[in-house]
Write a structure and sequence with these properties.
It is a single chain. By secondary structure, the protein is mainly α. It has one domain (about 5-60). The chain has one helix at about 5-25, and strands at about 40-45, 55. The protein has a two-stranded antiparallel ribbon.
C-alpha cells in the first residue's frame, strides 16, 4: 500500500472522528422561558428609526414580542 493510498483512507477517518468527538460535548443549557432579559440600554443609531438617538432597552418593549440583533460589537 502506497503512502497516497494510506492518506486517502486516513484523512476521512480523522475527519469523522473529529466530528464524533465534537458531537459528544454537552450542549449549553437554554434559559427557562420565564427568564427576564438582562437590563441594558443602547443608543438607537438607525437613521430610519423613529427613536434615532434615544437609548432603547428591553423595558421599552415590555409586553411586546421583540427580537434583539447585535450586528457589531467591540
Amino acid at each position: 500500500m502506497t503512502l497516497a493510498s494510506w492518506l486517502r483512507r486516513l484523512v476521512p477517518l480523522v475527519a469523522f472522528l473529529a466530528v464524533v468527538a465534537a458531537c459528544g460535548q454537552d450542549p449549553v443549557e437554554p434559559l427557562p422561558v420565564d427568564t427576564r432579559a438582562p437590563d441594558f440600554s443602547l443608543p438607537d443609531v438607525n437613521p430610519n428609526s423613529a427613536t434615532m438617538g434615544e437609548f432603547i432597552s428591553p423595558r421599552t418593549y415590555l409586553g411586546s414580542v421583540s427580537a434583539w440583533y447585535f450586528g457589531h460589537s467591540t
